[in-house]
User: Which sequence fits this backbone?
């Protein structure tokens, strides 16, 4: 399921949305927080510009809201419904999850956002 050519591949690996050949990020590890937003200007394989227009990635904030809710719901379901903790602990788990996964959420949001606009192109070598 997770192979080159699917949007999910680009979203989960942070690879170039057009050719899926390389990471958009200069540092693969989102937990080096000073580098979390450091991206390459263009893809070195297909020459796609990641920042389609100025402040393109502001739109990713809307996506991060949805992704954050998904993580929060998952934390709540696991702690309250599966582990059977009380409501206070469950809400603590939501806050903790959102803080711990913040860098991952931010990058996932950018990956989802850019994949709205750029599609995988299996002929990217000809269409550069
Ligand atoms: Zn590319």
Assistant:
């Amino acid at each position: 399921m997770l192979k080159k050519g699917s949007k999910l591949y680009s979203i989960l690996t942070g690879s170039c949305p057009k050719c899926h050949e390389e990471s958009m990020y200069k540092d693969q590890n989102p937990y080096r927080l000073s580098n979390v937003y450091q991206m390459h200007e263009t893809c070195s394989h297909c020459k796609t510009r990641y920042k389609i227009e100025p402040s393109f990635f502001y739109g990713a904030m809307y996506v991060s809201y949805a992704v954050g809710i998904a993580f929060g719901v998952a934390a709540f379901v696991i702690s309250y419904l599966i582990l059977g903790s009380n409501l206070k602990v469950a809400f603590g788990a939501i806050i903790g999850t959102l803080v711990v996964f913040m860098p991952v959420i931010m990058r996932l949001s950018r990956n989802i956002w850019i994949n709205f606009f750029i599609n995988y192109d299996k002929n990217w070598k000809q269409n550069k």
User: Anything to note?
Assistant: Residues 7 and 115 are 7 Å apart (CA to CA). The radius of gyration is 17 Å. The longest helix spans residues 60-82. The mean pLDDT is 94.
